[in-house]
Design brief:
Largest sheet: 8 strands, mixed
Structural class: alpha/beta
Number of helices: 18
Radius of gyration: 25 Å
Bound molecules: adenosine-5'-triphosphate, magnesium ion
Number of strands: 13
Distance between the termini: 58 Å
Oligomer: single chain
Strand content: 15-25%
């Protein structure tokens, strides 16, 4: 906490300031609350609670993937305990204090606290009353945020994330992990087509990281012959920075680059979960959308990527083994990612001629998830696209499956088609005139 007073924004504006709970929807936003809390960097946080309910909320937040790097400790005793503690100990990056004391007492205790706070330490206060005057006084004293109880774990995470993820200085990209429920079900095809659609529709930079190091098809699918790529980054993740990343990426179009797999078998790929995380972290610091194409096998690092991703997309074909595996993946992710939305399901290769299939409805009921897209089996289109090194939409924009990938791209980024700039229809001027007349 800064020892110097800062003035609250809008403090001079009488009555102009209201406290809006962070979890509440302030204005139009398509992002779910869970997506607004971004991964929090390697900082230390100490929380001083007054009651057990708050300690429990902090505990839930502490177990969340977004706080995986944070060093967090919880103490009881509220603000008085904090004041006593920091007279003896150095302050961490962030102190969170729960206090039900009346306004004057909170302020007096905070002044004591400020006397032993390091200048870089930030403070969040969690109080019991929605009191605008207190809020202003706290901001004037350099408190970063005031939350009013009851708060949910996500609200707390969002408040912390807002302090440490400044979108202007540190863009933190979203990570989407694609995995197949079984080998060969089209997970990479869905991943590449969705990533391509994302880069075309949003006109934002997208990187595909192909983690199928020995057999990955990203280079082939985009008709590229990359020399270096992700294996070089993974072999010495600590060397990876913006400049090296730029050299290792292969540009496929204005907004799409691939971090291609080497696809050679004469070397061993000893990937560690930490190495993977480090590499993905560097990529996400540099690009807004990171799409990870995972191979269909279960390792410590593939599991870690699934646990840490912002969204997981499971592609499955409609048979029993796919159903069992998809259920296992979905159950595991739901157990361990309690504050996240459910994994996404793409049903692929549906309606293959002469094949007995489990219906999409049954699949959805068993998993408790609605498929975000159902893509039919179409060997002609998919075979041709794969052989040409083209995306489905590039090959044939009229193909039945072409719109599916746009839908996947928009759904995984929580956007709707209407929010994306569309070409005006030829009838637009006429329709406008009609609207004016009505
Ligand atoms: N809907 C579809 N209809 C017909 N063929 C498809 C369809 N989707 C994908 N394919 C084809 O299936 C094959 C396997 O696809 P892909 O490599 O994407 O699967 P995968 O799940 O990533 O496999 P792996 O387990 O090897 O990673 C490819 O030849 C692809 O063109
Ligand atoms: Mg694959």
């Amino acid at each position: 906490m800064s020892k110097h007073a800062i003035s609250a924004p809008g403090a001079e504006d009488p009555g102009g300031l209201e406290i809006t709970p962070l979890g509440a929807d302030a204005g139009f936003s398509e992002e779910p609350v869970s997506a607004r809390a971004r991964p929090i960097p390697r900082i230390s946080i100490q929380v001083f609670c007054e009651n057990a309910a708050m300690a429990e909320i902090v505990q839930v937040a502490a177990e969340d993937r977004r706080l995986a790097k944070v060093h967090l400790s919880v103490h009881m005793g509220g603000i008085e305990a904090a004041v006593a503690h920091y007279q003896q100990n150095p302050t961490p990056n962030l102190v969170v204090i729960e206090s039900s004391l009346p306004r004057d007492q909170i302020l007096a205790e905070l002044d004591h606290l400020a006397a032993s706070c390091d200048p870089g330490t930030k403070v969040i206060v969690v109080g019991h009353v929605n009191d605008v005057v207190l809020y202003r006084d706290l901001l004037r004293r350099g408190v970063s945020e005031y939350l009013v109880e009851p708060i949910a774990p996500l609200q707390l995470m969002e408040a912390i994330s807002n302090l440490y993820n400044n979108p202007e200085t540190e863009p933190v990209g979203h990570v989407y992990a694609f995995i197949g429920a079984k080998g060969g079900v089209g997970s990479s095809t869905v991943c590449h087509n969705a990533a391509w659609a994302l880069s075309e529709v949003l006109k934002a930079n997208v990187v595909i990281a192909d983690l199928d190091l020995a057999f990955g098809t990203t280079g082939l699918d985009f008709n590229q012959d990359p020399v270096q790529g992700i294996a070089d980054a993974l072999s010495s993740p600590e060397r990876l920075d913006e400049v090296l990343l730029d050299r290792l990426l292969t540009k496929c179009s204005e907004h799409l680059s691939i971090f291609a797999a080497p696809v050679v078998l004469d070397r061993d790929y000893d990937i560690t979960a930490e190495g993977c995380e480090q590499v993905i972290d560097v990529v996400r610091q540099n690009v807004p959308y990171v799409v990870v194409d995972l191979p269909h096998f279960w390792t410590a690092w593939s599991k870690r990527i699934l646990m840490q991703a912002d969204e997981v997309i499971v592609t499955a074909a409609p048979d029993l083994a796919n159903l069992r595996n998809a259920k296992n993946i979905v159950d595991l992710l739901q157990q361990t990612r309690r504050n996240d939305s459910k994994p996404r399901l793409v049903m692929n290769m549906v309606n293959m001629p002469k094949r007995p299939e489990i219906s999409v409805k049954e699949f959805e009921a068993a998993l408790g998830i609605k498929a975000m897209s159902v893509i039919e089996f179409d060997s002609e289109t998919f075979g041709q696209a794969a052989n040409n090194g083209q995306m489905i939409e590039e090959l044939n924009a009229k193909a039945k499956s072409a719109p599916a990938f746009r839908d996947v791209a928009l759904a995984m980024t929580h956007r709707r088609e209407t929010q994306v700039a569309k070409k005006p229809s030829a009838l637009a001027p006429f329709l406008e005139k009609l609207k004016l007349k009505l």
